[in-house]
Amino acid sequence: MNSKHLSKGARQLSPVRKGKIRLYTNRFCPYCQRVVLILDAKNIPYEIVNINLLNKPDWMYDKSPMGKIPAIEMDNGEVLYESLIIADYLDEKYPQRQLHPKDPLQKAKDQLLLRQFTKVINALLKSIHVGRVDNDEAEVITEGLTTFENELANRSGPFFAGQKPGMLDYMIWPWCERSDVLKMFGRAYILKKDKYKKLMDWRKIMMEDETVKKSCCDVNTHIKYLQSHRAGLPDYDLLCFK
Amino acid sequence: MNSKHLSKGARQLSPVRKGKIRLYTNRFCPYCQRVVLILDAKNIPYEIVNINLLNKPDWMYDKSPMGKIPAIEMDNGEVLYESLIIADYLDEKYPQRQLHPKDPLQKAKDQLLLRQFTKVINALLKSIHVGRVDNDEAEVITEGLTTFENELANRSGPFFAGQKPGMLDYMIWPWCERSDVLKMFGRAYILKKDKYKKLMDWRKIMMEDETVKKSCCDVNTHIKYLQSHRAGLPDYDLLCFK
């Protein structure tokens, strides 16, 4: 998981071993973490190839359009990319511990929530990019979090999926893990924890989930990475054994 | 299908009848047509409520966020929106004539193609909005169509899904039905039919599909509607019996 990120000039990799999945990923990419969570939750055998996003190996461009990650490569050479499409594929292909709700209506409603969460992500990305949270973005974030807070209040819990985390829990997790980085922007941006009590409880028990633990990073590491990223020199290898 | 489009002030509708689905739609909305195609292909009993997009009935805002259409309402009052989420839901809930590929890998690959097609749609929308096809948009459209042309060449055909249209065929159809409206912008914008021979053959047999026939419109009607739309007074009721 914390292996060195490969760059342009890295030598060709050997074919994927029989029965394994190879994940092209990046230690600090939240979209990539989605796929890691699904692979871990379903206990699918996989190997990790970490990619330097600023200077990708040439062969990455043969795997996916513009060398996009996350991408998974199967032992027959087939490749898929786009985190949500990979997640759906893995959940269908590997029936152990089904993560999508079994009921089609509940599954569709969770998909709608995920669409709304995508808007929250985009507002967060924009805020991190400009270094402050503007009103429009604040509104999208507040509205999104309120929807999720109410949703948790209306479900039997403690997870969105019930007694164990499911697809929706894992698909939103990477950004929730990072939510405290907002304090980089000053005290005003720390989430009002009493306003999102249910979400805060959810976040706490997510942290204790065996699957989440495997890829989870503490907030200081996230902030350290983000600062290097904002300085134009992302330190992808922050967690490497040196 | 061609009933009058309801506007602000329209009276409340009665509850959805047992065993039926109510579709809130608009005769000229391609996203809505996606849902019509799935309902028709799977022979699901439904009723149509046409909505005036410029002046929606008040109760539409109680059904979906911002009164978004397409939306479907079930006989228990549950509502779903977003064309692709509705399509997935209907395909899972009603197992007759499964439209998604049975193989999870093929399904995932079709999803990737659909994402690329969304970029083509957005380029088309931008072009129609500004009244010309700029270079960036032309590139996205050409690249997208070439991908789909090659894809058809590599599949056993004649449809993307094989001997009968499947999910991918129907999800891209509404825009392909309208492709000839580009001639509004002059001869230069007519698609180079010899460059997309497979797609043109596909378009021709799609036109003969019983499901497509039910909601299909001729190009002149589409142009007439689009002209009214561009003039700021969309004539949604163009096909109404008056």
TrEMBL record, chains A, B:
Entry keyword set: Oxidoreductase, Transferase
PANTHER family given in the database record: GLUTATHIONE S-TRANSFERASE OMEGA, PTHR43968
UniProt entry tagged with the keyword Transferase: yes
Residues of the GST N-terminal domain: 19-98
KW Transmembrane helix (keyword) present: no
Biological processes per GO annotation: glutathione metabolic process
Name used for this protein in its record: Glutathione S-transferase omega
Source organism phylogeny: Eukaryota, Metazoa, Ecdysozoa, Arthropoda, Hexapoda
InterPro entries named in the record: GLR_AS, Glutathione-S-Trfase_C-like, Glutathione-S-Trfase_C_sf, Glutathione_S-Trfase, Glutathione_S-Trfase_N, GST_omega, GST_Omega/HSP26, Thioredoxin-like_sf
GO molecular function: glutathione dehydrogenase (ascorbate) activity; glutathione transferase activity
Domain GST C-terminal residue range list: 103-238
Enzyme nomenclature, EC number: 2.5.1.18
Similarity comment: Belongs to the GST superfamily. Omega family.
GO cellular component entries: cytoplasm
Native organism: Tenebrio molitor
Top-level taxon in the UniProt lineage: Eukaryota
A Pfam family recorded for this sequence: GST_N_3
Gene encoding the protein: GSTo1
